[in-house]
Amino acid sequence: MTIAIRDVREHELDSVLALNNAAGPAILPLDAARLRRLYENAEYFRVAERGGALAGFLIGFGAQAQHDSVNFAWFRERYPDFFYIDRVAVASRRRGGGVGRALYADVQSYAELRYPQLACEVFLQPETDHALLFHGSFGFREVGQNVMTEHGIRAAMLMKPLCSYAWVRDTYGGMLPDLPWLQRPYAHLAAPPARLREAHA
Predict the structure, then answer these.
(1) Which of 9, 82, 88, 94 could form a disulfide with 58 if both were Cys (CB 3.0 to 4.6 A apart)?
(2) CA angle, corner 140, sides to 155 and 25, nearest 5?
């Protein structure tokens, strides 16, 4: 079955919440209020759909976002510009079927036109070894570790350079062409994040 990646819709937030909280130890649980804040502030919030059902989602923020994640703050303290994958989850029945790779391919195609690096973390727990392998196969490398004291979790902090960024920056500056496939995945927001408004002023 084909995997379709598209912007999340507001009425799907309950389904996203359920998917997040059923994902296991690789991702922190959410409540509805926290998910609503992510929905209202994320630069990128897209879902994967397969066979007409929600199969996964991915949420991301640019480096200048007002985001209260401790792992996001860790990257902010060390790197001036990057795109941060805040969380990603795939429905258990869809794992191993390419949904995660489809989401990562989509977020990379978004980020590499706008940011020099892609950042994320993987929790260092026995149950999450597969996540390290997945990210390594996608080109991410560990740049440090961070202990999330509130949760008692140590995370491997990963980054991936985005090779197309320099060419896009040098060729287009902050004015990407007005093409359908370059449209921002923030249709759920009343207004796009400031960085993106400026890029298209």
Answers:
(1) 88
(2) 35
Which of 183, 175, 57, 56 has its CA nearest to residue 109? 183
Contacts of 182 (CB under 8 A, 6+ apart): 113, 176
Give the CA radius of gyration of the chain: 16
Which domains, from first to last, does the chain contain?
A: 3-116+167-175 (3.40.630.30)
**Considering the entire predicted model, what is its pTM?**
0.89
The Cα–Cα gap between 62 and 60 comes to 7
Distance, CA of 59 to CA of 57 (rounded, Å): 7
By the 8 A CB rule, do 128 and 25 touch?
Answer: yes
Pairing outcome for strands 117-123 and 83-90: parallel
Cβ atoms 134, 100 nearer than 8 A: yes
Q: pLDDT tens, 50-70?
A: 988 999 999 999 999 999 999
pLDDT in tens, 165-178: 999 999 998 788 88
Which of 122, 131, 126, 118 has the alpha carbon at shortest distance from 154? 122
Q: Which tokens sit at 83?
A: 């795109």
Which residues share a beta bridge with 32?
A: none
Length of the chain: 201
